[in-house]
Amino acid sequence: MKELKYKQVKTKLTIVKIGGNVINAEKALAIFLKDFASVKGLKILIHGGGKKATELASKLGFQPKMIHGRRITDQANLDVVTMVYAGLLNKKIVAQLQQYNCNALGLSGADANSIQAHKRIVKDIDYGFAGDIDKVDNTIIQSFLENKLTPVFCAITHNKKGQLLNTNADTIAAEIAVALAKTYHVELIYCFEKKGVLKDVNDDNSVMENIDSKLYKIAKDKGVIAAGMLPKLENCFYALQRGVAEISIGNPAIIVNKNQKYTRLVLA
Amino acid sequence: MKELKYKQVKTKLTIVKIGGNVINAEKALAIFLKDFASVKGLKILIHGGGKKATELASKLGFQPKMIHGRRITDQANLDVVTMVYAGLLNKKIVAQLQQYNCNALGLSGADANSIQAHKRIVKDIDYGFAGDIDKVDNTIIQSFLENKLTPVFCAITHNKKGQLLNTNADTIAAEIAVALAKTYHVELIYCFEKKGVLKDVNDDNSVMENIDSKLYKIAKDKGVIAAGMLPKLENCFYALQRGVAEISIGNPAIIVNKNQKYTRLVLA
Predict the structure, then answer these.
(1) In whole angstroms, what is the distance from residue A227 CA to residue A229 CA?
(2) What's the pLDDT at B268?
(3) Which of B79, B88, B106 is the closest to A111 by Cβ?
(4) How confident is the model at residue B5 (pLDDT cuts 50, 70, 90)?
């Protein structure tokens, strides 16, 4: 009976998403990757894009197309983000993790058909080659983890019909966390340049340390939470409701040291 | 006893390398990928670079650096080949194979530490971030194959110290073939735009259908074989001597249909 009890405890899986601003700062990224490599147990990294893609597009003479503040991914911009996210950034991150003896495996959603998506349905706006996720293959990701590999996902998926798609990295992190929550005790950590979700966007120390779904709704309605944070928090509560055990938002250092302020998300 | 005998027969593994000229022609590449997806059994694809990297470098204002006709990989050019080979080309190839129900997994040598290399030692010429291979991890590649995945390698490796390295795709194909020949009956096929090794470089039908190591030496000494083919043939005989069962050189169609001229390499 005792043995049975032990078997029922799920293995811990840490899923970390790092945002563009961490990736932009070479030194901060190196520190983060060393920290990430030191995290014990099973882990997955998801990385955003950073300004490199915008820089490359601009050097190549493309203007990033924006409608209502949202990026439109045309063919030229899809090629750029595929080069930068899946090529330059993903492989540099993998090579650095290998240096720290973390056996990283760089992936797009097309690789091993790990994340299947569809081109966003056109309603008012055609976002171009933007992908909305249909399915994360938890079995193949689990087989990588069991093989002592650390999957490192960039923000590119595919539609299984030969088309690559640009996909929001926060959403990828949430969907992977949900898909693996059936098997693992998943802790999902969103790392970015701030210490957490701020009450006052101009005061870096005004971290909201605990946000439950009720508080989130109130803060959202009152406009206390900055607009940019809303989709991230939507992703968090979506994931919590679907079995992800723990979710935090904070600066990259929290992956190794939680003796500092950060935001912890909980269901109400 | 009969059962034992069956067990001793090695499983077939097909390893295909496609060159830059196939990759440059979008339609030819699509036909090749459909054919490759249809190849039965275990398989691995290795792809070269093509002119996209040179085009991108030129658009960004870098001159490809050449010494004695050989490319020098400085930091800017390494970034370009990492973007193009590991990003754009690798992911487009993987997405297309997925479309044809081939469960492709795009890899650089840094991914899963599958191919470890060192920066080429400087003698007369500093080739920059060019990698010479030290070790292919046959165990991890085998685990992907056993998991019904088809590894798709681009020509980027790493040194396990955080540095990516540009590495010759023909050599990668040969080293992977050698590493897996211990376990599998490996057929290695080099595909390029010609029908095979030509006796007369100006006559596309002058295919040398069988080349053994003796004939190779004679043809090389007499200058019958074009200089560009020599490293490819060196790779072939290196691989044959180390247990690779079959090696062919020809146009991409030979992977599904050998009822045409192509070059077969054999030991003397």
Answers:
(1) 5
(2) 83
(3) B106
(4) low
Asked whether residue A69 carries a pLDDT value surpassing 80, the answer given is: no
Other C-beta atoms within 10 Å of B267: how many?
A: 10
- The minimum CA-CA distance between A64 and chain B, rounded to whole Å, is 17
Range list of β-strands (E), chain A = 12-18, 42-47, 65-67, 70-72, 104-107, 115-119, 131-136, 150-153, 156-158, 164-166, 185-191, 210-212, 246-250, 263-266
Partners of residue B50 in chain A, C-beta under 8 Å: none
Residues A150 and A109: beta-carbon distance below 8 Å: no
CB atoms under 10 Å from CB of B47, counted, come to 27
A240-255 pLDDT tens trace: 999 999 999 999 999 9
Q: Decide if pLDDT at B254 tops 50.
A: yes
Task: Say if residue A45's pLDDT is above 80.
Answer: yes
Nearest chain B residue (CA) to A95 = B162
Q: Which CATH architecture has domain A7-266?
A: 3-Layer(aba) Sandwich (3.40)
Beta bridge partners of B47: B18
Under a CB-based contact definition with an 8 Å cutoff, are residues B57 and B71 in contact? no
- What the block records as the tokens of A9 is 């405890």
What is the spatial distance between Cα B222 and Cα B236, in angstroms, rounded to a whole number? 19
Which of A79, A83, A158 to substitute to test the interface with B, most B CBs within 10 Å?
A83
Q: How many CB pairs under 8 A join A and B?
A: 119
Q: How far apart are the C-alpha atoms of B11 and B13, rounded to whole Å?
A: 7
Q: Which fold has domain B12-266?
A: Carbamate kinase (3.40.1160)
Query: What angle do the packed helices A213-222 and A230-241 form, to 10 degrees?
Result: 160
CB contact under 8 A, A99 and B149: no
Q: How far is B168 from chain A (nearest CA, A)?
A: 17
